[in-house]
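Lecture 7 notes: from sequence to structure.

We start with a single chain of 76 residues. Read the sequence below before looking at the structure.
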Amino acid sequence: MAHGTQSSLSRGVSAHTGADTGLGNRLVALFDRLATWSERRRQRRALEALPDHLLSDIGVSRADADYEAEKPFWRG
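Now the structure, written as tokens:
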């Protein structure tokens, strides 16, 4: 009887693991998106903080830097 119970538990665990994999993938995707947004925000703030002569060195005008910095973090 204990063996029958264990196989029932094994089936339950494997079915549950499949559901966790979907949830795990969604969590990974969520954290990936949050990291992307955070990095995008950091880069835009850094670009905005650069003085004009350094922007000129990288070929970006102040207007372009300001435009990029004004975008919301969720826009690419």
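Helices lie at 2-49, 52-57, 62-70. Keep this in mind for problem set 3.
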